[in-house]
Task: inverse folding
């Protein structure tokens, strides 16, 4: 490799970056022959969200989570809802000066027990995610990521030593969809899911169902089968409703019937916790006990309406509900 | 014609004599030469110092920052995740 050109090994794109230029993610820049994640300590979005918004349905339900993101993403999904920050250059957006220590302090001072690295792609601002999660862990905070999972195995394995939960968005069980719509690939995402499981991270899987592009019943069935076989039937699976955004404004929102079809398909396949997202008030937002069938966590949107758990046990029949719950860890 | 040539010669002789009179002494011209050399050397050193750019100490761009307010911390329903 030519002098002053560096290669980033974080994600499968493995960008070769000349001096003064950035990788495909826009934030990992070659400065003087050294690769630097320039958004380290500079998140552009910092919000206190309900944990259900990530979505996490089996990870400390009804708990606030401090959610942060810097600009940048290693994929370029045509449907990205957060494209204004995910596809921005670091110098184009105003950011908060919040290095790891200040971020952890911001959570502690507000009695928020969880931090999420979310909104854009926490893998591209890896160093910030890792250092903040490590510091948080040392001070009793728990960290989670919401990611597309398009990364190389080694950094992901290291990350799951400090991050204990993840919602990974599987865009579609189809390599061509990943290439054409997302500028990414499916295989590395599946590897990330397996690594998360191996590292004992709490894992939930989401899938945005886009009309005409990722609503194929066969592809959904393949995803369900893969999740059940590789991650287990207790892995929560969220089918999310698409709302027109970014470069796919020509498409309609996902019909609720399509989502219901996917939901039933997954339940029939034996998945125990299947949800429909972005349809507030739908029955499929609730968690039912797989043993007695009663609602153990009732939800409307991101709001918890009822909770019938004793630690991690169903209040009605005593069956164990998979997840990480308060008092049960 | 003869007279004009004679006058011309006399004029040239006078001019040469005047030039000889106004010529600087050797010491003066040497001093000036050395001074010019010194100035040229200094200019060269200065220009070479200018060629080597000072090392850049910050990234080629600056991240603009904003204060973190209580309002900013509120949930943004437009952001997914």
Result:
């Amino acid at each position: 490799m030519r002098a002053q050109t560096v290669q980033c090994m974080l994600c499968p794109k493995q960008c070769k970056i000349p001096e003064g230029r950035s990788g495909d993610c826009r934030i990992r820049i070659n400065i003087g022959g050294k690769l630097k994640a320039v958004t380290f300590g500079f998140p552009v979005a910092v919000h206190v969200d309900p944990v259900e918004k990530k979505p996490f349905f089996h990870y400390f339900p009804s708990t606030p989570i401090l959610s942060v993101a810097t600009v940048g993403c290693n994929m370029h999904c045509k449907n990205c809802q957060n494209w204004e920050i995910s596809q921005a250059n670091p110098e184009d957006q105003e950011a908060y000066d919040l290095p790891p220590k200040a971020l952890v302090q911001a959570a502690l001072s507000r009695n928020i027990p969880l931090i999420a690295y979310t909104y854009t792609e926490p893998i591209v601002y890896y160093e910030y995610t890792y250092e903040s999660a490590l510091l948080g862990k040392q001070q009793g905070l728990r960290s989670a990521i919401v990611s597309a999972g398009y990364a190389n195995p080694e950094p992901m394995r290291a990350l799951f030593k400090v991050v204990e939960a993840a919602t990974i968005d599987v865009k579609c069980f189809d390599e061509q969809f990943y290439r054409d719509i997302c500028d990414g690939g499916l295989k590395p995402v599946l590897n990330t899911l397996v690594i998360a499981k191996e590292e004992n991270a709490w894992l939930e899987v989401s899938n945005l169902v886009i009309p005409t592009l990722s609503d194929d019943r066969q592809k959904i069935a393949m995803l369900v089968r893969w999740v059940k076989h590789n991650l287990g039937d207790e892995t929560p699976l969220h089918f999310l409703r698409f709302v027109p955004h970014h470069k796919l404004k020509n498409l309609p929102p996902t019909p609720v019937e399509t989502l219901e079809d996917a939901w039933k398909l997954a339940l029939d396949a034996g998945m125990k916790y299947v949800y429909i997202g972005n349809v507030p008030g739908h029955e499929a937002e609730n968690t039912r006990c797989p043993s007695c069938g009663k609602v153990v966590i009732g939800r409307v949107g991101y709001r918890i309406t009822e909770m019938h758990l004793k630690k991690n046990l169903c209040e009605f029949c005593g069956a164990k509900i998979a997840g990480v719950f308060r008092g049960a860890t | 014609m003869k007279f004009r040539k004679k006058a011309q010669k006399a004029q040239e002789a006078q001019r040469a004599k005047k030039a000889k009179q106004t010529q600087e002494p050797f010491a003066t011209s040497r001093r000036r030469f050395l001074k010019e050399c010194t100035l040229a050397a200094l200019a060269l050193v200065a220009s070479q110092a200018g060629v080597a750019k000072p090392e850049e100490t910050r990234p080629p761009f600056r991240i603009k920052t904003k204060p973190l307010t209580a309002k900013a911390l509120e949930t943004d329903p437009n952001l997914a995740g």
Notes: The interface with chain A takes residues 56, 59-68, 72-76, 78-81 of chain B (CB under 8 Å). The beta strands of chain B are 65-66.
